[in-house]
Structure prediction request, 1388 residues.
Amino acid sequence: MAQRAIWLVSHEPGTPRGGTVRFSRRYPTVEKRAKTFNGSSYVPVPEDDPFCKALLFELRLLDDDKDFVESRDSCSRISKASVYGLPTAGKELWPVVAIQKNGLVYVSVPLVEQTLSTRPPLISISGISQAFDLLFGLIDFFDSGPKTEADLSTKVSQLPDLLLYICPFGTLLGTNFLLDNFSNLSINRAPKQPAWKAGTYKGKAHVAVSITEKVKSMQYDKRDVADMWQVYGTITCKCDLEGVMPNVTVSLNLPTNGSPLQDILVHPCVTSLDSAVLTSSSVDMMDDSAFSGPYKFPFTPPLESFHLCYYTSQVPVPPILGFYQLKEEDSQLKISVHLKLHESVKNCFEYCEAHIPFYNRGPITHLEYKVSFGQVEVLREKSLLIWIIGQKFPKSLEINLSGAVNFNTMSHQKQPVDTICIGGTTYVKLYFRIPDYTLTGCYADQHSVQVFASGKPKITTCRELISSDYYIWNSKAPAPVAYRSLFL
Amino acid sequence: MAPRSADAWARVLAALRASPAAFVARAGAEGLAAELLSELRSERQSEPTKGSLLSVIMEFPTQLWPDPTAAEAAVSALLDTLALLPPRPAALRRPLLLAATSVLAACGALAPASAATSRLLPVLLRAASGRATGQEQRALQATACECLRELESCRPGLLAGQLGLLRALQDSRATQAHCLLFVITLRNALRALAQVGPGAPAGLHGLLVARTDRPQGGEIQAWDWSLEAPGAQWPGLWDWTLAGEDIWDPAVPLGQEGDWAEPGPAPLDLPPPEARELRAAVSQLLDLSYLLTPPAQAQMLQQLSQVLRAVRGQPPALLKPQLVRLLGTARVSLLHAVLAAKDTFGEALFTAQDEALLLRRLVGAAQHPALPSPARLFYLHCLLHFPENWPLGPAGEEGTPVLLTPSLATGLLPSLLQDPPDLLARLHLLCLLCGEELSADGSRDCQGTEDRALGYLQRLLASLRQGAAQPGAPRSSVTLCFRASYLATRCLASHPGALAQLTKGLAELYQARPCLAPHFVDLLEQAREVLAEPLGKALQQVAVAGAGGAQALQWHLQILTKVAGAQPLGPTLGFLWAALGQGGDWAWEQALLGTCRALLRGTELSGAGPRDLANLLQELARGLDDPDSRDRGRLYYSLFTHLSGPKLGSALGPTRSTPMLGSSLVEENEGFASALTVQEAQAPLQLRRVSRQAKEPPVILGLTVEASETLYSLELRFRILGPYYEPLKAVQVPCLRPGASPKLLLLPLEPRRPYPALLDISVLYATPSGLTCYAQLPSLPIAFADLFLPLPPSSPQVTHPQTFHELWASCLPGGAESCMWGPWWGQALETLVTKHWEPFVMSATPPTSYQVAIRLPPSSQLLLQLEAAGEDGVRVALRTDDWAILPLAGEYLRGLGATL
Prediction:
């Protein structure tokens, strides 16, 4: 249950080597165990340069993917769950867990405590999930705060010291790299203080609970294809409370017509879960008997801000219903978009935009359009129309855009190719945010936070709805279908 | 060498990190290591610089100290440095402990006899058990615990003797570091006890209570920054009896983490009080688990599961309250730990309802949009390896659990908009589900579902093909399409209609983009026959139709090369004739010849095909522009017209890529020249000696020969090294087949002098594929005793005793005599004579006196008189008429003495 080595590789497209190792850490004691456990199938951890090269090649991050290379492109070489095998000195190093995020590749090689002559399933390697925890922790660390080169270098220079606390011998002791004073980590100040809580808070008591819901949708406007939409939410908490282990209970409430929360996953600091919360799952058919709250989460908060829980939900209607028609006539495209805000949805946006991209056609040369509401922005080189709807739908809650677009097909070759939007297959994508609103109706208020600690804390709550992958497909052409009802 | 500045060190360390092996080879490990250690004590270097020196020591100890003795000295030096630190908080203390532990464990210096080990362990234990008050002290304490845990991991059972102390510490301190240290020590101690069996020096109780007096007796020592314990403080604590030799042999899994389903050794039987005590310790740890960080909880849960499994009759129900809590969390490691517990205990911990709940949670997590994609993919993988209570499928293979019904998996369907890894993983699941659905009895109820699933899969594949067919589509989307097609053939195998559609779609893709030929070749290679056959046919049709014009010719040739032999020859030949008319450069000609080569190997020598192929080759030899290509064409023509089919196949070997050398002939030569001449090989033959006693000359050497493959026309050639034997004739064997009874060979030896020798054996043979091979076999010794023959019966009137005495007398004065003492008592002499000299005995008074006469061809004799002298062994008098064999006889007799 340990890691043999960790790397942080930055992907630098366009440079001769394609990337550099920003940080690496090897664990020789774990390596020694690997040698014994793996026996004749042992493959040593390579040096940084050959490793970096093999990794970037495998992840297709080098620029030379013009030719078919069997060791990378063969149809039977299907990597599982971000776990790769890297050729090194005639053998293959496996399992290499590699996750890409924001131009960085986070890599770890977990110890496998058996022979590797036949690869065991990942589920039987306990180091795999530890590698995920470690890499997710590293990603949180590098993703937080500004992302300039200087910030990155500073964080990289902090890593050796951080790892002396979090992973001194390759066995992971914690996942939180974000603490300001990490030297406190996992060292308890008082008996029975959690290892994940570095110290105690001193100051005014304050509890903040925020609910962020995201809505995905695929709308087709076709008789034989069902539209799909899905809501999922994240509850984020920050509790500034005095005491070693203050107890807090957050209850999420639903209004009478709210949509029940499902697939609830909680933070490890939650002490117990109601069985109704645990069993409410999106795979069940919805009916009126479904548990609809209140959803109680008792916990002892860590010092930092954390995600108390994630959930999904099935709402009866999508917030915005759309229709998109695109036809090719002569040398131009005729488009028509119709959007309708559902009457139950709060008509108060922070922003609302419809992006209408055109792929594989070249830059826009000419555009004629008519909108019933809002303005249209044209990004000619990017072949993109942005329909800015603004803060409110009109009283009718329905808006239209129609127009005709011409393209310079000659310079089409220079643009990147899209392999989904071919011919008439294309979409309108909606971007919007509605503050102080959730689609499920889920809310937390002053009364939903109970704190069992000295002093009455200030409680703040907020909520929002954000669009995420909200697609309206051209109904006049085939569209990629995302079934949710195939087997029902 | 002058001391380096901090900057100079930074450069040195950067160079070392970049390429440790090369750097150490250049700089010399010894010097560099000594310099590193001395700089740690230097007053000139700042703490951060020393910290970076220590981090290099932690990471590359095996390069710096390749030998354990040097490593031990290094650990001592590090401990000396630690002792020299001023008695106040210092940032270097922790890294020094970590570095010393890394060096000790990684370089193989951790051993009972090692002085550094017996110094470091008390230092660590003292630091781990002290009463820490300040922040720095707590950090140091946690580090010391981690160091001990690492040593225990590398040498399981090392701390078994300290179990009582560690338990008391875990009780009183209750920190994560103490808990984890205690758990791993407990687990390893139980395993060690199980291995040692009933003969263990102290039972679990003995271990758990031993030496708990110290820390419990009020507050133990106050913190002492020096850490170096006076030697006598922990006298005789280090009992290595339970410590393993390094980590335990992985070949014999002992319920190690990661062995998943492997059962360990027989569970330990503990007396009831000990079992109760163990249960108490485990529940106490489980109660604390909430206070640990998630990865530490996962480790502890897994190790406690192993603890419970190692002991007979321990109910795993203790784990249940924690499992309910962990089941709800979003952490990969925690859910993984729950799955591991499920696998370990099965129904004993998870009822059918629990199992269903766990599966639904897993399905929920695998499709949860709020989780990062790698986590979702991992959960999906876990679903396909779900540890079921009553699995139906074969263990260890991917499959959908029984409870995972299609309706449960609706949220896990693949979609074109997902990232390639997500799409492929979900497609795989869909294929597995489809495979099950489709292979089920096909009742009418599920017909609709079946059709929908198939239809969905086909539409998805069609969209992927459409994406890949786009001119300029990136290679990633092309590989995605081919991987998806490869996966889909699994479930389409029993669906000819769907398979035909897939084949048609792929052929259309090839028609649209012939430059994807390498992917098609790969797919034909990897896919099972069920797809490879029809697809090869369809691709051949597209290729010979010449889609894509002249630029696509090279791709078509690749496809035709691949399908040569499997598909009809006619269309390909037609295409090649047409292509020949177009003309091209050297590379083009080589590609054309490459295809011909593949055709040569795969052609059936019947019908009109061979004649057409020969005509084409002749035309190539005449009509190509490049002389090199013409030569190669001519060569192929000659080979084709002169060699038999199998010989041609093996001569041309596996299809090669287009030659990159200046001349294709040079490269060709490497391939077939050896195939046409005799090849040196490892013989699939085994020769064994069989004993064979000849009554008269010549001496016969018996051999049996066995083959592990079928071989023809064997010629075994024998050569006796040295000048003392007449040459031997070769032996011919027409055929050897594996499994047939061994062939017996009798070799008549004709010594010129009766000396031992070495028989050199080589073999020439033909393989079924037509190759002729030569192999050298291991030499066989001809021993002195192999040459023994009985004396010829001279005349029936003369009795043996008389003859022996005459012979005995006749040896001198021309010959030589000698005396020996043989270490044989009791029946040994009789046994010896029966075993070795039975045919040569001339007279005997068993069991005490024997007279032995041996003839040694060509013309020597050896006479032995053996007299048993009671308890004093046997007196052996020997005479020979040939003084030169006396040392050989002596050696032979001494050899017999040694074997008894």
About this structure: The mean pLDDT of chain A is 89. Residues 126-143 of chain A form the longest helix (18 residues). The two ends of chain A are 41 Å apart (CA to CA).
